[in-house]
């Protein structure tokens, strides 16, 4: 069992070692498990990960080593990759991984005076991640649409939870649509005409089909505004203005009447 840490300090434990012996060269490739008949290793999207290949050669045996991905030479001169060698151990570090980093990586050894290269292959695939917006606001009557973005391959199965109810397919007012760009079914939740009762927490849940124990989820707080919400303050202001005008009008009438009565008294013949 081999232990190493990635750039973020997360501890990886490599459970097994693949050994290939051809001619006088022995290649030991670290891997996690067997996935779809290939030795494999999982990594987290947007983090760094490292593959290690230990080469055992007879004394005096001359060889060269290179890394390949999906049968093509890997451009290890780019900033994304870092190749190091520590004695017999050759390491390939992949920085800030993305979906495109998934594939079959080969540790290829060319032995001097031997036309056929020796190699060991490891299948790299990612732990998936689901992500939704933290908060979303809609107006009553509008279309409520919540996308759930999925990172990593293979893609998980998506289902949704609203309150205490779980949706695995479209049902009643809730429509689950496919994210065509990512190729993920049920990744978009739609309610055609939102009403105030649709307020609450919406949870996108991803489950790896081949490994149901692997689950990831993310919540969105949905707020629905009354479509007349902007009207009530306006009506309130209008009512206040109306009342104020009425008060001023009544006050002015009373004042004018009082002044008129006083004027009549001043002009009385008794004075």
TrEMBL record:
PROSITE patterns assigned to the protein according to its UniProt record, in alphabetical order: IG_LIKE
Superkingdom assignment: Eukaryota
Annotated signal peptide: 1-23
Alphabetically ordered keywords of this record: Disulfide bond, Immunoglobulin domain, Membrane, Signal, Transmembrane, Transmembrane helix
Domain annotation Ig-like: ranges: 47-110, 117-204
Pfam families: I-set
Keyword Lipid biosynthesis annotated: no
Entry-linked InterPro entries: Cell_Adh-Cytoskel_Orgn, Ig-like_dom, Ig-like_dom_sf, Ig-like_fold, Ig_I-set, Ig_sub, Ig_sub2
Ranges annotated as spanning the membrane: 230-251
PANTHER family the record matches: CONTACTIN 5, IG-LIKE DOMAIN-CONTAINING PROTEIN
The protein's name in its UniProt record: Basigin isoform X2
Gene: LOC108562858
């Amino acid at each position: 069992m081999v232990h190493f840490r990635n750039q973020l300090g997360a501890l990886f434990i490599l459970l097994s070692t693949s050994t290939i012996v051809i001619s006088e060269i022995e290649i030991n490739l670290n891997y996690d498990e067997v996935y779809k008949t290939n030795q494999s290793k999982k990594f987290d999207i947007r983090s760094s990960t490292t593959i290690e290949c230990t080469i055992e050669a007879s004394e005096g045996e001359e060889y060269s080593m290179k890394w390949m991905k999906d049968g093509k030479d890997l451009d290890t001169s780019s900033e994304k990759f870092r190749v190091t060698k520590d004695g017999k151990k050759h390491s390939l570090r992949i920085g800030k991984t993305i979906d495109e980093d998934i594939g079959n990586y080969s540790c290829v050894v060319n032995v001097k005076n031997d036309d056929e290269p020796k190699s060991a292959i490891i299948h790299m695939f990612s732990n998936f991640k689901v992500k939704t917006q933290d908060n979303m606001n809609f107006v009553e009557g509008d279309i409520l649409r919540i996308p759930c973005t999925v990172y990593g391959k293979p893609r998980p199965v998506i289902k949704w939870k609203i309150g205490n109810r779980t949706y695995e397919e479209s049902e009643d007012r809730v429509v689950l649509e496919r994210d065509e760009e990512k190729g993920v079914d049920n990744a978009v939740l739609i309610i055609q005409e939102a009403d105030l009762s649709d307020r609450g927490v919406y949870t996108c849940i991803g489950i790896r089909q081949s490994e149901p124990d692997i689950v990831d989820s993310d919540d969105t707080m949905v707020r629905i505004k009354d479509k007349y919400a902007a009207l009530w303050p306006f009506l309130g202001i209008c009512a206040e203005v109306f009342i104020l005008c009425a008060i001023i009008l009544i006050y002015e009438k009373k004042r004018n009447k009082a002044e008129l009565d006083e004027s009549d008294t001043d002009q009385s013949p008794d004075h």
